[in-house]
Amino acid sequence: MAEINWKNKCWVTTIYLVRQDGSVLLTWNKNLQTWIPVGGHIEPGETPEEATTREVAEETGFEFEFLNAPTTADSGRLKILKPQHIQIESVPHHGHHMNFVFVGKCLKWTDKSETDEQEQLRWFSRQELEGMRGKMLDSVLDNSLSAIGAVHNSHTL
């Protein structure tokens, strides 16, 4: 079995949380100086699902459910996660992020405006996002709009 080159790769997870009103939650990243979804590094021994759940709890305290909820099969021996996609991205001074990207429906939230690390939290409407082209990473903008559409089309808000 081939070994993973851990020297320049980090395993991370992010989630685009969407509220009932169709807005998506993003956080201001001080290092990148742009808006990104909630998330962070997967810690040793964690699954991407566990890391996402932990990061949302730490950064926001909000309650959510995954859009494509994990399912189990084979009498509980097999768990199937359905991330929106896996994104490999070059991060300045940080190598490559192997990013499991999820979409979630925010079930309970507060007016909290900062993460646990004092980074700004903000809900963006579709209209606000469309006015942000060129002012945030294209991938974040496109994924945010896609998340709003996916949650809206799920008819489960």
Topology (elements, then pairings):
Blueprint: E1 9-18, E2 24-29, E3 34-36, E4 38-41, H1 48-59, E5 63-66, E6 71-73, E7 78-80, E8 85-91, E9 95-108, E10 121-124, H2 126-130, H3 138-154
Parallel strand pairs: 1-9
Antiparallel strand pairs: 1-4, 2-3, 2-10, 5-9, 6-7, 8-9
Helical content (DSSP H or I, runs of 4+): 10-25%
Give Rg in angstroms. 16 Å
Secondary-structure-based class equals alpha+beta
What is the CATH domain class?
Alpha Beta
Q: How many individual domains?
A: 1
The largest pleated sheet is described as: 5 strands, mixed
Shape: globular
By DSSP (H or I, 4+ residues per run), the number of helices equals 3
Give the SSE order as H and E letters. EEEEHEEEEEEHH
| CATH architectural group | Alpha-Beta Complex
Q: What is the overall pLDDT average?
A: 89
Count of distinct strands:
10
Give me the CATH fold name: Nucleoside Triphosphate Pyrophosphohydrolase
* Fraction of residues in β-strands: 35-45%
- The CATH superfamily is identified as Nucleoside Triphosphate Pyrophosphohydrolase
Low-pLDDT stretches: none
In short:
The protein is an alpha+beta fold. 22% of the residues lie in helices and 37% in strands. It has helices spanning 48-59, 126-130, 138-154; strands spanning 9-18, 24-29, 34-36, 38-41, 63-66, 71-73, 78-80, 85-91, 95-108, 121-124.
